[in-house]
Amino acid sequence: MTLKYLTVLTFILGGSSQLFAQGYIVPYGVTTNYISGSGEISVIHDPANQFYTGFFLNPLGISRPSFYTNTFSFSVVLDVGVRVFLVSSNDPISLQPILSQNWPELGGSPSYRFANNVPFYVGLYTGYDFAPTYPPSPPYYYLDPVYGWAELVNNQGVIQVLTYSVEYGGAGIYAGTQNIITVPEPGTVALLVAGGLLGAWRWRMAIGKI
After folding, report:
1. Quick one: how many helices (H) and strands (E) in the chain?
2. Do residues 177 and 76 touch, judged by C-beta distance below 8 A?
3. Domain segments of the chain as ranges
4. Dist CA 95 CA 150 (whole Å)
């Protein structure tokens, strides 16, 4: 009877862990018309309440009259904000690469050059609120993180959003795709616990037969 209970426990733990392992794609995770005419690229940071934050890539001017603007400054909305990284297609937008500083992060006073009509990817990282400690200071970390990416293009001095994808509840997403990075820890822990219980039961049964 004990073995039967342990088997059931294994399946329950394993099944419930999968519920936590999968995130989901957030509809309308990136938009440019959340605040009409502002030039903001808005990113959802609280999917449950449909709250958005955002960032700006503002043109710095035309170097020569016959050329379109291709130099931009970066700024974020002054609330929870969003961290933005220059990434490549299929890069894993998740916490570990962010902590490892795998990509250039937009911010501060530098200007950025984006060639006209050449698409590029940015990785996005935001969340429900800043993680402690308070007050927060750069680099920011987030509670209930949201990870995503957007494909942008400089269209004659205006940054436009071509495609995007944002996920919530998983461990991140691969740039240029809707492939969510799953969280292995809950499932791994559940299987280890169940395996340990089963091993202990077998050991106790073996001892009892001696």
Report:
1. 3, 13
2. no
3. 1-22+183-210, 25-181
4. 17
Distance separating alpha carbons of residues 98 and 101, to the nearest angstrom: 5
pTM: 0.77
Beta bridge mates, 129: 143
**Residues 146-184 pLDDT 10s:** 999 999 999 988 999 999 999 999 999 999 999 999 876
User: What span, in angstroms and rounded, lies between the C-alpha atoms of 67 and 181?
Assistant: 41
Up-side HSE of residue 99: CA atoms within 13 Å toward CB?
Answer: 5
Which residue is listed with tokens 């297609």? 89
Tens-digit pLDDT profile for residues 136-147: 888 889 999 999
Helix (H, G, I), strand (E, B) or coil at 35: coil
Torsion on CA atoms 26, 27, 32, 35, rounded to nearest 10: -90
Token digits for 75? 């700024």
Q: Rounded to an integer, what distance in angstroms lies between the CA atom of residue 123 and that of residue 151?
A: 9
CA–CA gap between residue 143 and residue 168 (Å, rounded)? 11
d(CA 120, CA 90): 13
Three-point CA angle 107, 115, 173, nearest 5°:
55
Torsion of CA 124, 129, 132, 137, to 10 degrees: 60
The full DSSP string for 62-120 is -SSTTS---EEEEEE-SSS--EEEEE-TT-EEEHHHHHTT-SPBP-SS--EE--BT--E
